Amino acid sequence: MKVTSWNLLHGARIPPKDDEPNPKQLLLDGFAHFSKDFKPDVMGLQEVDCNQVRSGNVNQVEVIADFLGAKYWAFAPSLMGTPGGQWRKLESGEPNLYTSFDAKVSDLPTSYGIAMLSKIPVVKWHVLALRRVVRGKWILIPAKRGVKFMYLKDEPRAVIAAELENGYTVANTHLSFAPGGNVYQLIKSKSWLKRLPGKHILMGDLNLPWGLGATLTRWNSLSKAKTYPSWKAALQIDYLLSDSLTASDVRAITPTPQIISDHLPLSIEIL
Length: 271
What we know:
Helix content is about 15%, strand content about 35%. By secondary structure, the chain is an alpha+beta fold.
């Protein structure tokens, strides 16, 4: 089983070009390039758009799943609206998980969050909501001409887990950039996942450098590779962690340059 985690940056190219193809085509071009080196059976995606103007008004995980030949997918909206613009948290009673099992996926709202896809049959999907951290931060983001500052409010977060037919339960998350807040979210995610059946893998963009994802959970890091920023990777903030597997049980697949996102994919194959 090959497992990959990738912060997608909603399929954007860094830096953007003046003559970009339409967003859906850029996403497909990005995954055509990705597929040269990576052929995941299970994939966790972070920073995923659904019905956003900036990404061509498509359900990105459904587009990606169709391209990769993955029958099963799930999308957990972290917020309604557009991050960095107008958005709100989910209201009580609003669905917090949409899957390929749903009959009305075409009616998904304008939203943003995390997603998973699988070629291996999914017995059951699980989702856990994580509170956002109140404080935000100023960040530098790439622009067509250099960089610019943007104040980023933290967003609500979530964890998706796929209980697979093969006995594994694989979870995906994207944690806060706020120090301390991401640690709390990580410990809560780990505790929640441990209560689910099967052998466990936790993956995602944890926003924790220096191996802290493994240190804080006391789980095994299955791939130690620098993934951020994509153009000159200097940090590992993306992880594949497990309490059931060790690094000797897997083959780590070397991250390679991609044409979309500011992260590199992190991938393993279970031996």
